[in-house]
40S ribosomal protein S25 (Vitis vinifera), 84 residues
Amino acid sequence: MQKWSKGKQKEKVNNMVLFDQGTYDKLLLEVPKYKLITPSILSDRLRVNGSLARQAIKDLMARGSIRMISAHASQQIYTRATNH
């Protein structure tokens, strides 16, 4: 009889679904300094969920703080805005 190994439990990330002021300030100050910006990096570093990270990126794009490198159906990649 085969024993099924228990699948490794991925621990649930308890990320915020709304920005609080502190996180939002951090977003505006620190994120434009990252060399590589993707929704997954933001959600990891700022502890926000994926859809919020995407909204944040749209916001930063609109402010001109970051620019898009590549957009793909499943993954968008951005970098900080350099003046050139």
Q: What stands out?
A: The chain is about 40% helix and 15% strand. The mean pLDDT is 83.
